[in-house]
Design goal:
400 residues, alpha+beta, 12 helices
Length: 400
């Protein structure tokens, strides 16, 4: 069987027209765009998750990344700011970028911690290796400018047996030298039957505040004075307990490292994010049901308001004849934990729709003390910029 084209030019023109039409950006309603931003949360499933090859991109639509558009749509909102605890929102970015910031916060910001412990004498009941491990986990703080000035210590390897060596620019030296002795009024207290070791003895408890910073070389430029000296973030961290006749004499070397090497170098106790919850009441919830609906959520998420005369007179509103009754309204979804409790009750079936905003990330950052919480995010941005610059240089070298 043969097929013939009566007018080949006409056929080619039609194909070209179809190609142009298929490449034209599709027009999408604002309602559809808003719907795309919401991840559906159902009783047992999660719907409307990203399923395209590139997140945020849809076939037949123009989603070319534009710097000016990003500047206009990207937002940062601060919810809480404390030196060691902060919460903020990043609005208008993709999950891959938000997760990159989270991972950098946890594992890639350099911090200072005890790495080497030289035990000169330890007659306490705490074994050398156990005490050394506890010392390594003590969070340290000092002048932030001085900590940034420090370079990372290069450990000896088979290829480089010497490493970088111990220098003032890569190593902080600290000492712990304490001895437990009886108090001056020990005999008097003992006669009274006193059994509190803190009163009976000196240095019965060894704390992180007993760590002594030893200045060397150019470190006095940054770490001179009580406020700038290297010390424990929490001075009352208990390290060991001793009794008269026992002593601890150690020297510690602190170096910079990252959380990917060891958890003690992580600058955060926690760094996490969650998507902003959304709650849509699709049908009226009134009276006793409204009160029960409010109890399904944390306090402040759902409020109760009276049905106005205008709503009661509006045809098709669902409030006809219910003027003055209490209705459920959404107040503050930020406080919601998305427990889905309301979806368990049959009286709310088909009346509420839960979800999360796909591009609204609520970050919670808790610092261990070496950096303030708001500084940590800025550090993560700088590290991500450096990674991008390294990648661009690598691609440029490949193309040569």
């Amino acid at each position: 069987m043969k097929f013939e084209i009566s007018n080949p030019n006409h056929y080619a023109q039609n194909k070209e027209q179809q190609k142009i039409t298929s490449m034209a950006p599709a027009r999408v309603s604002q309602a559809e765009l808003e719907c795309r931003k919401i991840v559906g949360v159902n009783a047992e499933t999660v719907t409307n998750v990203t399923s395209t090859d590139i997140p945020g991109h849809y076939p037949g639509e123009d989603h070319e990344w534009d710097l000016e558009e990003f500047k206009n749509t990207f937002k940062v909102q601060f919810h809480k700011y404390q030196p060691l605890d902060s919460s903020f929102s990043l609005i208008g970015i993709d999950a891959s970028i938000a997760n990159a910031f989270r991972r950098i916060l946890i594992a890639e910001i350099p911090t200072l911690a005890i790495e080497y412990v030289f035990v000169h004498n330890n007659t306490s009941i705490v074994q050398d290796e156990v005490l050394s491990h506890r010392l390594g986990l003590v969070p340290l703080t000092g002048n932030p400018a001085g900590i940034r000035w420090l370079r990372q210590y290069q450990k000896p390897t088979e290829e480089d047996p010497d490493g970088s060596g111990v220098q003032d620019v890569n190593t902080i030296v600290m000492k712990l030298k304490v001895e437990c002795t009886k108090a001056d009024n020990y005999d008097e207290l003992n006669k009274k039957g006193e059994d509190n070791p803190r009163l009976l003895y000196k240095h019965a408890h060894v704390y992180a505040k007993d760590l002594e910073f030893v200045v060397s070389g150019r470190q006095d430029t940054f770490f001179s004075g009580e406020a700038n000296a290297i010390k424990s973030v929490h001075p009352d961290i208990l390290l060991a307990k001793m009794r008269p006749g026992q002593c601890i004499d150690m020297e510690m070397h602190c170096i910079k490292g990252i959380g990917a090497d060891h958890a003690k170098f992580s600058p955060v106790a926690t760094a996490s994010y969650r998507l902003l919850p959304t709650i849509s009441i699709t049908k009226p919830i009134l009276g006793a049901d409204a009160k029960k609906f409010a109890r399904c959520f944390p306090k402040g998420v759902i409020g109760l308001e009276e049905v106005s005369l205008e709503e009661a007179n509006r045809r098709g509103s669902g409030y006809e004849g219910h003027e003055g009754e209490k209705k459920a309204v959404v107040k503050n979804t930020f406080k919601d934990t998305v427990s889905r409790e309301c979806l368990r009750h049959p009286e709310f079936e088909g009346k509420v729709r839960l979800g999360r905003m796909r591009d609204h990330f609520i970050f919670m950052v808790e610092s261990t003390g070496q950096y303030q919480s708001h500084e940590l995010f800025l550090e993560s941005v700088s590290i991500l910029k450096e990674k991008c610059a390294n990648m661009k240089r690598g691609l440029a070298n490949i193309m040569r």
